[in-house]
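Model it.
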Amino acid sequence: MAYTAIDDPTDYFRTKLYNGNNNIQNIAWDETDTSMAPNWMWIKSRTGNTVFGHVIGDTVRGSGKYQRVDTDDEEVSNNNVIRAFNSNGFEVGGATFVSEGSRTYVAWGWIANSAFSNDASSTSIGSVDSSGSVGALQGLSIIKWTGNNTGGATIAHGLGTTPNALIIKNRTDGGSSNWAVWHDKSFVNASDPNMLYLDTNAATADDTNVRHTTVTTNSTVFSIGDYNGVNGNNDDIIAYCFAEKQGYSKFGKYEGSGAEPGPFVHTGFKPAWVMLKDSASDGWGIFDSKRSPNNPVTKILQAQDAGAESTSGGADHINFYSNGFQVCTGGANGNFINEDGNNYIYFAFAESPFVNSKGIPNNAR
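Modeled.
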Protein backbone atom coordinates (compact mmCIF):
# COMPACT_ATOMS: atom_id res chain seq x y z
CA MET A 1 0.00 0.00 0.00
CA ALA A 2 1.29 3.46 -0.90
CA TYR A 3 1.34 6.06 1.86
CA THR A 4 0.89 9.81 1.72
CA ALA A 5 3.80 12.22 1.82
CA ILE A 6 1.62 14.74 3.71
CA ASP A 7 0.61 13.48 7.15
CA ASP A 8 -1.13 16.69 8.22
CA PRO A 9 -3.07 18.41 5.40
CA THR A 10 -3.75 21.37 7.72
CA ASP A 11 -0.14 22.37 7.10
CA TYR A 12 -1.34 23.50 3.65
CA PHE A 13 -5.11 24.03 3.76
CA ARG A 14 -7.45 25.25 6.50
CA THR A 15 -11.00 26.49 6.99
CA LYS A 16 -12.01 29.19 9.47
CA LEU A 17 -15.48 30.27 10.59
CA TYR A 18 -15.78 33.73 12.13
CA ASN A 19 -18.21 36.55 12.86
CA GLY A 20 -18.11 40.03 11.36
CA ASN A 21 -17.89 43.09 13.63
CA ASN A 22 -17.52 46.06 11.24
CA ASN A 23 -13.88 46.43 12.27
CA ILE A 24 -10.41 45.31 11.34
CA GLN A 25 -9.85 41.76 12.62
CA ASN A 26 -6.81 39.52 12.82
CA ILE A 27 -8.21 36.02 12.33
CA ALA A 28 -6.16 33.08 13.62
CA TRP A 29 -6.72 29.46 12.66
CA ASP A 30 -8.48 27.11 15.09
CA GLU A 31 -5.80 24.42 15.00
CA THR A 32 -3.45 24.08 17.99
CA ASP A 33 -0.54 24.78 15.68
CA THR A 34 -1.61 28.14 14.23
CA SER A 35 1.53 28.61 12.14
CA MET A 36 0.04 28.28 8.68
CA ALA A 37 0.78 31.41 6.64
CA PRO A 38 -1.67 31.39 3.71
CA ASN A 39 -0.82 32.53 0.21
CA TRP A 40 -4.40 32.36 -1.04
CA MET A 41 -7.61 33.28 0.80
CA TRP A 42 -11.21 32.74 -0.34
CA ILE A 43 -13.86 34.33 1.92
CA LYS A 44 -17.66 34.19 1.76
CA SER A 45 -20.43 35.58 3.94
CA ARG A 46 -22.78 32.81 4.98
CA THR A 47 -25.87 34.30 6.61
CA GLY A 48 -27.67 37.53 7.39
CA ASN A 49 -30.47 39.65 5.99
CA THR A 50 -28.03 40.64 3.26
CA VAL A 51 -25.19 38.43 2.13
CA PHE A 52 -22.22 39.32 -0.01
CA GLY A 53 -20.24 37.69 -2.76
CA HIS A 54 -17.16 35.48 -2.75
CA VAL A 55 -13.85 37.36 -2.56
CA ILE A 56 -10.34 36.05 -3.10
CA GLY A 57 -6.90 37.47 -2.56
CA ASP A 58 -3.36 36.13 -2.61
CA THR A 59 0.22 37.08 -1.86
CA VAL A 60 1.19 37.08 -5.53
CA ARG A 61 -1.14 39.94 -6.41
CA GLY A 62 -0.46 41.39 -2.93
CA SER A 63 -2.45 42.34 0.15
CA GLY A 64 -5.08 45.04 -0.17
CA LYS A 65 -6.33 43.56 -3.45
CA TYR A 66 -9.28 41.28 -4.06
CA GLN A 67 -11.40 39.88 -6.86
CA ARG A 68 -14.96 38.55 -6.88
CA VAL A 69 -15.35 34.87 -7.72
CA ASP A 70 -19.07 35.07 -8.46
CA THR A 71 -18.73 37.82 -11.08
CA ASP A 72 -16.46 38.68 -14.01
CA ASP A 73 -15.37 41.90 -12.25
CA GLU A 74 -11.79 43.06 -12.46
CA GLU A 75 -9.48 43.22 -9.46
CA VAL A 76 -10.16 45.89 -6.83
CA SER A 77 -7.61 47.63 -4.61
CA ASN A 78 -9.21 48.13 -1.20
CA ASN A 79 -7.29 47.69 2.03
CA ASN A 80 -10.54 47.30 3.95
CA VAL A 81 -11.16 43.78 2.59
CA ILE A 82 -8.21 41.33 2.69
CA ARG A 83 -5.63 43.46 4.49
CA ALA A 84 -2.83 41.01 5.25
CA PHE A 85 -1.64 37.41 5.12
CA ASN A 86 -0.33 36.62 8.60
CA SER A 87 1.97 33.90 9.90
CA ASN A 88 -0.97 32.38 11.81
CA GLY A 89 -3.94 33.42 9.68
CA PHE A 90 -5.10 36.57 7.93
CA GLU A 91 -6.38 40.09 8.53
CA VAL A 92 -9.63 41.54 7.22
CA GLY A 93 -10.98 45.06 7.26
CA GLY A 94 -14.48 46.10 8.22
CA ALA A 95 -15.92 45.91 4.70
CA THR A 96 -19.23 44.14 4.21
CA PHE A 97 -17.63 41.40 2.11
CA VAL A 98 -15.55 40.19 5.03
CA SER A 99 -16.66 41.66 8.37
CA GLU A 100 -20.10 43.24 8.60
CA GLY A 101 -21.53 43.03 12.12
CA SER A 102 -24.06 40.23 12.77
CA ARG A 103 -22.87 38.33 9.67
CA THR A 104 -21.11 34.98 9.77
CA TYR A 105 -18.28 34.14 7.36
CA VAL A 106 -16.25 31.20 6.14
CA ALA A 107 -12.65 31.57 4.98
CA TRP A 108 -10.60 28.96 3.14
CA GLY A 109 -6.83 29.35 3.06
CA TRP A 110 -4.11 27.56 1.08
CA ILE A 111 -0.32 27.66 1.12
CA ALA A 112 1.68 27.69 -2.08
CA ASN A 113 5.06 28.83 -0.73
CA SER A 114 5.13 29.96 2.89
CA ALA A 115 8.13 32.19 2.17
CA PHE A 116 5.83 34.36 -0.03
CA SER A 117 8.54 34.34 -2.69
CA ASN A 118 8.06 34.93 -6.39
CA ASP A 119 9.84 31.70 -7.21
CA ALA A 120 8.26 30.67 -10.51
CA SER A 121 10.11 33.12 -12.73
CA SER A 122 10.02 31.85 -16.31
CA THR A 123 12.33 34.17 -18.16
CA SER A 124 13.69 31.13 -19.96
CA ILE A 125 10.66 28.84 -19.51
CA GLY A 126 7.56 29.27 -21.65
CA SER A 127 6.89 31.94 -24.25
CA VAL A 128 5.58 34.51 -21.74
CA ASP A 129 7.50 35.62 -18.66
CA SER A 130 5.69 34.91 -15.39
CA SER A 131 6.27 34.88 -11.66
CA GLY A 132 4.46 33.57 -8.64
CA SER A 133 4.51 31.27 -5.65
CA VAL A 134 4.94 27.51 -5.99
CA GLY A 135 4.33 24.62 -3.62
CA ALA A 136 5.39 21.57 -5.58
CA LEU A 137 5.03 19.26 -2.56
CA GLN A 138 1.33 20.06 -2.10
CA GLY A 139 0.64 20.71 -5.79
CA LEU A 140 -0.41 24.35 -5.81
CA SER A 141 1.07 27.32 -7.65
CA ILE A 142 -0.19 30.88 -8.03
CA ILE A 143 1.18 32.40 -11.23
CA LYS A 144 0.85 35.87 -12.75
CA TRP A 145 1.79 37.26 -16.17
CA THR A 146 1.03 40.03 -18.63
CA GLY A 147 -1.06 38.89 -21.60
CA ASN A 148 0.03 39.24 -25.22
CA ASN A 149 -3.13 38.13 -27.07
CA THR A 150 -1.25 35.29 -28.78
CA GLY A 151 -2.80 31.86 -29.27
CA GLY A 152 -0.47 29.06 -28.20
CA ALA A 153 1.39 31.10 -25.57
CA THR A 154 2.92 28.98 -22.82
CA ILE A 155 3.26 29.82 -19.12
CA ALA A 156 5.50 28.17 -16.54
CA HIS A 157 3.55 26.67 -13.63
CA GLY A 158 6.46 25.40 -11.52
CA LEU A 159 4.74 22.23 -10.26
CA GLY A 160 7.15 19.73 -11.80
CA THR A 161 4.23 17.62 -13.00
CA THR A 162 1.40 18.22 -15.46
CA PRO A 163 -1.42 20.13 -13.73
CA ASN A 164 -4.76 18.42 -13.19
CA ALA A 165 -6.68 21.69 -13.09
CA LEU A 166 -6.28 25.41 -13.78
CA ILE A 167 -8.36 28.42 -12.72
CA ILE A 168 -7.42 31.56 -14.67
CA LYS A 169 -8.73 35.14 -14.47
CA ASN A 170 -7.94 38.46 -16.10
CA ARG A 171 -7.35 41.02 -13.34
CA THR A 172 -7.47 44.30 -15.28
CA ASP A 173 -9.83 44.03 -18.26
CA GLY A 174 -12.71 46.02 -16.81
CA GLY A 175 -14.74 42.93 -15.99
CA SER A 176 -15.21 41.64 -19.52
CA SER A 177 -14.16 38.00 -19.06
CA ASN A 178 -15.08 34.99 -16.98
CA TRP A 179 -13.08 32.82 -14.58
CA ALA A 180 -11.85 30.08 -16.92
CA VAL A 181 -11.62 26.58 -15.40
CA TRP A 182 -9.86 23.69 -17.08
CA HIS A 183 -10.05 20.27 -15.39
CA ASP A 184 -8.44 17.19 -16.88
CA LYS A 185 -11.53 15.06 -16.14
CA SER A 186 -13.96 17.32 -18.00
CA PHE A 187 -16.35 15.62 -20.30
CA VAL A 188 -16.80 16.73 -23.89
CA ASN A 189 -13.84 15.11 -25.59
CA ALA A 190 -10.49 14.19 -24.12
CA SER A 191 -8.62 15.98 -26.91
CA ASP A 192 -10.58 19.23 -26.46
CA PRO A 193 -10.13 21.92 -23.79
CA ASN A 194 -13.49 21.26 -22.08
CA MET A 195 -13.80 24.61 -20.35
CA LEU A 196 -16.04 25.60 -17.48
CA TYR A 197 -16.44 29.04 -15.89
CA LEU A 198 -16.36 29.51 -12.13
CA ASP A 199 -18.60 32.59 -12.13
CA THR A 200 -21.40 30.95 -14.14
CA ASN A 201 -23.37 27.70 -14.12
CA ALA A 202 -22.79 27.20 -17.86
CA ALA A 203 -22.31 23.71 -19.22
CA THR A 204 -18.95 22.37 -20.35
CA ALA A 205 -17.84 23.83 -23.68
CA ASP A 206 -14.84 23.48 -25.97
CA ASP A 207 -12.90 26.69 -26.50
CA THR A 208 -9.39 26.54 -27.89
CA ASN A 209 -9.20 30.31 -27.47
CA VAL A 210 -8.95 29.68 -23.73
CA ARG A 211 -6.72 26.64 -23.45
CA HIS A 212 -4.75 26.05 -26.63
CA THR A 213 -4.75 22.36 -27.58
CA THR A 214 -2.18 22.29 -30.37
CA VAL A 215 0.51 23.31 -27.86
CA THR A 216 1.21 20.69 -25.21
CA THR A 217 0.58 21.35 -21.53
CA ASN A 218 3.23 19.40 -19.63
CA SER A 219 5.25 19.21 -16.43
CA THR A 220 6.81 22.61 -17.13
CA VAL A 221 4.22 24.83 -18.85
CA PHE A 222 0.53 25.15 -19.65
CA SER A 223 -0.79 26.55 -22.92
CA ILE A 224 -3.33 29.33 -23.41
CA GLY A 225 -5.16 30.83 -26.34
CA ASP A 226 -5.93 34.45 -27.20
CA TYR A 227 -9.15 34.74 -25.13
CA ASN A 228 -9.14 38.02 -23.27
CA GLY A 229 -9.76 36.26 -19.96
CA VAL A 230 -6.48 34.35 -20.08
CA ASN A 231 -4.28 36.40 -22.39
CA GLY A 232 -5.68 39.89 -22.95
CA ASN A 233 -3.07 42.13 -24.50
CA ASN A 234 -1.12 44.00 -21.78
CA ASP A 235 -3.61 42.82 -19.15
CA ASP A 236 -2.57 41.35 -15.82
CA ILE A 237 -3.60 37.68 -15.57
CA ILE A 238 -3.48 35.24 -12.65
CA ALA A 239 -3.77 31.45 -12.48
CA TYR A 240 -4.23 28.92 -9.70
CA CYS A 241 -2.61 25.67 -10.82
CA PHE A 242 -3.35 22.31 -9.17
CA ALA A 243 -1.65 18.91 -9.26
CA GLU A 244 -3.19 16.17 -7.13
CA LYS A 245 -1.14 14.74 -4.30
CA GLN A 246 -1.88 11.43 -2.62
CA GLY A 247 -3.58 11.86 0.72
CA TYR A 248 -3.96 15.63 0.30
CA SER A 249 -5.80 16.59 -2.91
CA LYS A 250 -7.79 14.96 -5.68
CA PHE A 251 -9.27 16.33 -8.92
CA GLY A 252 -11.55 13.66 -10.26
CA LYS A 253 -14.95 12.83 -11.71
CA TYR A 254 -18.02 10.68 -11.11
CA GLU A 255 -21.29 9.87 -12.85
CA GLY A 256 -24.59 10.61 -11.15
CA SER A 257 -27.00 7.75 -10.51
CA GLY A 258 -30.18 9.55 -9.49
CA ALA A 259 -30.44 7.03 -6.64
CA GLU A 260 -30.35 7.45 -2.87
CA PRO A 261 -27.61 7.03 -1.82
CA GLY A 262 -25.57 8.04 -4.84
CA PRO A 263 -22.08 7.02 -5.96
CA PHE A 264 -19.15 6.79 -3.56
CA VAL A 265 -16.09 8.77 -4.71
CA HIS A 266 -12.74 7.44 -3.53
CA THR A 267 -10.18 10.15 -2.77
CA GLY A 268 -7.79 8.31 -0.47
CA PHE A 269 -8.44 10.78 2.35
CA LYS A 270 -11.15 12.21 4.58
CA PRO A 271 -12.23 15.41 2.80
CA ALA A 272 -12.13 18.81 4.42
CA TRP A 273 -13.40 20.67 1.33
CA VAL A 274 -15.13 19.58 -1.87
CA MET A 275 -16.24 21.68 -4.82
CA LEU A 276 -18.16 19.96 -7.61
CA LYS A 277 -19.85 20.84 -10.88
CA ASP A 278 -21.70 18.84 -13.52
CA SER A 279 -21.24 19.09 -17.27
CA ALA A 280 -24.72 20.62 -17.60
CA SER A 281 -26.07 23.98 -16.43
CA ASP A 282 -26.00 23.47 -12.68
CA GLY A 283 -24.00 25.46 -10.14
CA TRP A 284 -20.68 24.91 -8.39
CA GLY A 285 -21.43 23.32 -5.01
CA ILE A 286 -18.94 23.89 -2.17
CA PHE A 287 -19.02 21.73 0.98
CA ASP A 288 -16.63 21.68 3.94
CA SER A 289 -16.15 19.92 7.26
CA LYS A 290 -16.17 23.08 9.42
CA ARG A 291 -19.62 24.30 8.38
CA SER A 292 -20.92 20.70 8.51
CA PRO A 293 -18.75 18.90 11.08
CA ASN A 294 -20.88 15.75 11.03
CA ASN A 295 -22.60 13.72 8.35
CA PRO A 296 -24.69 14.52 6.44
CA VAL A 297 -22.77 17.47 5.02
CA THR A 298 -25.69 19.69 4.12
CA LYS A 299 -24.42 23.28 4.10
CA ILE A 300 -23.79 24.47 0.56
CA LEU A 301 -22.32 27.58 -0.99
CA GLN A 302 -22.13 28.05 -4.74
CA ALA A 303 -19.10 29.69 -6.33
CA GLN A 304 -21.12 31.46 -9.02
CA ASP A 305 -23.78 32.69 -6.58
CA ALA A 306 -23.51 35.58 -4.09
CA GLY A 307 -26.45 34.18 -2.13
CA ALA A 308 -26.59 32.84 1.41
CA GLU A 309 -25.47 29.41 2.47
CA SER A 310 -28.23 26.86 1.98
CA THR A 311 -28.95 23.99 4.32
CA SER A 312 -30.28 21.27 2.11
CA GLY A 313 -31.96 19.09 4.70
CA GLY A 314 -32.52 15.78 2.97
CA ALA A 315 -31.67 16.98 -0.53
CA ASP A 316 -28.33 17.74 -2.14
CA HIS A 317 -26.09 16.55 0.63
CA ILE A 318 -22.91 14.52 0.69
CA ASN A 319 -21.24 12.38 3.35
CA PHE A 320 -17.54 12.62 4.18
CA TYR A 321 -15.79 9.33 5.01
CA SER A 322 -12.23 8.38 5.91
CA ASN A 323 -11.33 7.57 2.28
CA GLY A 324 -13.71 9.69 0.21
CA PHE A 325 -17.20 11.10 -0.06
CA GLN A 326 -20.63 9.88 -1.12
CA VAL A 327 -23.09 12.06 -3.00
CA CYS A 328 -26.72 11.74 -2.03
CA THR A 329 -30.03 13.09 -3.20
CA GLY A 330 -33.14 13.60 -1.15
CA GLY A 331 -35.65 14.21 -3.90
CA ALA A 332 -36.39 16.62 -6.72
CA ASN A 333 -33.43 18.86 -5.93
CA GLY A 334 -30.98 15.99 -6.29
CA ASN A 335 -30.14 17.03 -9.85
CA PHE A 336 -27.64 19.46 -8.38
CA ILE A 337 -25.14 16.74 -7.40
CA ASN A 338 -26.51 13.37 -8.51
CA GLU A 339 -28.65 13.53 -11.63
CA ASP A 340 -28.86 10.16 -13.35
CA GLY A 341 -26.31 9.97 -16.15
CA ASN A 342 -24.82 13.43 -15.57
CA ASN A 343 -21.04 13.72 -15.35
CA TYR A 344 -19.46 15.66 -12.50
CA ILE A 345 -15.98 16.96 -11.80
CA TYR A 346 -14.69 17.77 -8.34
CA PHE A 347 -11.86 19.51 -6.52
CA ALA A 348 -11.16 18.00 -3.08
CA PHE A 349 -8.71 18.79 -0.27
CA ALA A 350 -8.05 16.57 2.73
CA GLU A 351 -8.74 16.78 6.43
CA SER A 352 -6.60 13.70 7.00
CA PRO A 353 -5.10 10.97 4.80
CA PHE A 354 -6.63 7.49 4.91
CA VAL A 355 -3.18 6.05 5.70
CA ASN A 356 -0.31 8.19 6.95
CA SER A 357 3.37 7.95 6.11
CA LYS A 358 3.90 5.33 8.83
CA GLY A 359 1.19 3.09 7.37
CA ILE A 360 -1.26 3.85 10.18
CA PRO A 361 -4.91 4.19 9.11
CA ASN A 362 -6.87 7.19 10.35
CA ASN A 363 -10.24 6.79 12.00
CA ALA A 364 -13.47 6.94 10.01
CA ARG A 365 -15.66 9.98 10.44
